[in-house]
Design brief:
Layout (H helix, E strand, L loop, with lengths): L14 H10 L5 E3 L5 E2 L4 H11 L18 E2 H12 L6 E3 L8 E2 L4 H7 L7 H15 L18 H4 L4
Parallel strand pairs: 1-4, 2-5
Antiparallel strand pairs: 2-3
């Protein structure tokens, strides 16, 4: 999930928040690999009603339900949309792929649509615009590194060197 109030100081998770924070700190976004991997980014305001409905829908009892967008976009396209929304002239820096990273990640949302009323109401551009407006209000954040990294072999250089 992404949206306002996401922890943009987390240097390990949630690529959109990481990119926004890097740009606010006057650093270019980093893309690991070729950027062709895809993700189905879910905006927080789209997901929370379905999660809340799960507690009050008898049909959901005992069910395993994926809640989130099934509209995948390439990492390269997501980065381009984000740079455009921020009015940034930065270009992404491409680095070696992270070992074991999933190439394509999305969910099958039909069950959440049918049982919980889930709907993707915010496209990525609209959601990013809202998240960026919030992030600009709080300003750039110093990355909060976990000490120590449990695994450093194959970890991105910016994690090991703490230069996110």
């Amino acid at each position: 999930m992404y949206g306002p109030r996401q922890n943009v100081a987390d240097p390990y998770r949630n690529v959109l928040g990481i990119w926004i924070n890097r740009i606010l700190r006057r650093k270019p976004p980093i893309i690991y690999g070729d950027g062709k991997q895809s993700r189905a980014f879910s905006y927080i305001e789209d997901v929370t009603p379905a999660i809340a409905n799960a507690g009050f829908t008898s049909k959901a009892k005992g069910q395993i339900i994926n809640v989130g967008s099934d509209k995948a976009v390439s990492i390269e396209k997501a980065c381009s949309l984000l740079l455009q929304a921020m009015g940034s002239e930065f270009k992404p820096v491409f680095q070696e792929p992270r070992p074991g990273e999933v190439k394509h990640a999305f969910c099958t949302a039909q069950k959440s649509i049918d049982l919980l009323g889930y709907a993707t109401r915010h496209d990525l551009k609209e959601g990013l615009t809202k998240m960026i407006a919030w992030a600009k209000q709080i300003g750039p954040q110093q990355p909060a590194y976990t000490l120590p990294l449990e695994i450093t072999k194959g970890a991105p250089k910016v994690w090991v060197e703490r230069t996110m």
